[in-house]
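Thread: quick sanity check before group meeting

JM: Hey all, I'm pulling together slides for Thursday and realized we never actually wrote out the predicted structure for the chain we discussed last week. Dropping the sequence here so it's in one place. If anyone has concerns about the input, flag it before I start.
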Amino acid sequence: MNFPQILVVDLGSPYALQTARLMRRAGVRAAVLSPEKAQSFLQQTRPQGIIFSGGTSLPEDGIAETILNQADRDSIPYLATGAGVRLLMSCYQMAGRVSKEASGYQKRLCRIQTPDRLLFDWPEESSVVTAEPEFTLEPVEGFIEPAQVEGVGPVIAHSEKLIWGVPFQPGAEQTEWGEKLVNNFLFKVCDCRTDWSVTEVIEEIREQIKEAVGDKKAVLGYSGGVDSSVIAALLAPVLRDNLYGFTLDGGHFREKETEEVERHAEAAGMNWELRDRQREFIRAVGKTVDSEKKRDAFRRVYKKELEEYTREKQADFIIQGTLAPDLIESGESGSGALIKTHHNVALDLEAQELHPLAPFFKDEVRELARALELPDSVVNRHPFPGPGLFVRIMGQPVSGKKLDILRWADARAREVIAEKGHSGFSQLVIAMPCVKIVGIKDDGRGYEYPVIVRAVETSDFMTAKGHIFPDQVRIALEEALTKHSEISRVWFDMNDKPPATVEFE
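JM (edit): ok, ran it. Output follows.
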């Protein structure tokens, strides 16, 4: 197998994996590595190019500087993004000053002054995502400023060497021309060839897992969603009877979801069984209203049940459907900050964990599902959090009664949207804040729960646009949901991510 052509050095950026995703979309293999692992990588091969993907700060161990200096010595083209620009400034001793602190990731206007091969075919003005503080600098001899990011600072480029620094994140979905910039770097700067396809990655994953597992047994925690169904369809043909899939019904599922999970397991061709653990999960999760404590309680029961099942099957491996956003939000990728805990990340299990889909994003996994000829109900299934409805009940401890109300509301909302033929969003969230409010019931005063309807539009779930329902759908949802005796009104949440997250907890 050939080495990846592009090395992405992850300097703590939440967008490093998304940048690699854009390269895969272009058909080019990339490796996302920490500075320490990147050093070892460079001892084995010379990549076509290097991207230093910076977040809001830079590591202070000096390894990134060593890699950049090696790239200079070996004449390897490189691009520094985000805080990586400060790495470039430091290594080349550019004089400058920071005039104000960074204020979090936000959209800015980028204006092109002198188009070059990296910015080829970019419009004169476009939106980019940046978290860089405002800065000014005096480039050393040989450097130019082909563009300016409003309120931040310049794009830096060397007039002769293939070196660039952009104070924004090309991998962010809201950077309008980020994919074009990445493609320019791949093909106009680094002269890459296409070497990545869905067919190849399917075979690669199968070979890697077969080599890792051998003749031993493996367990897959199966949710019935696109991620775990893809893993099942990938691995069932190579692990055969040594792959055991099971689903835990903790009372957190939506209406008729266990039946759907069973159909999807059959479509994926996997040995599968369902285990009812509602009492154990509700007892553990129902002790708190804090979202992270709920997730932690869910994780503890999930881990216990997973390990018991693994011991029962005498398996040596546990396979998880972890994706790149899970690692990023859990703070397990680079040095990213914790946004929320994911139930299947960093469990510290007795058996060895394997995460075949960890480099990928949701849209890429859907592409794998299509290639594996899984049914549309799998391919187009909206994401559903591991703790399910537990994290959609807010303000009071989870109980069986509240779960029944929310489960009913979720099913009716999906029915209404389907009946109206409405689509165009990537995930639907129906949540219940457990604070009773006044409404009108049967021409009299009601005092029941509100329900929140939220839908988002996104491809990678790292950023998202809040979806606005048309009036006819909104009115139909209000009428349908308030028919429940315990629901007084319907709220609609249209916040983008950021500042909001897709889920409320």
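AS: nice. The chain has three domains: 6-189, 198-379, 399-493. The two ends are 42 Å apart (CA to CA).
JM: adding both to the slides.
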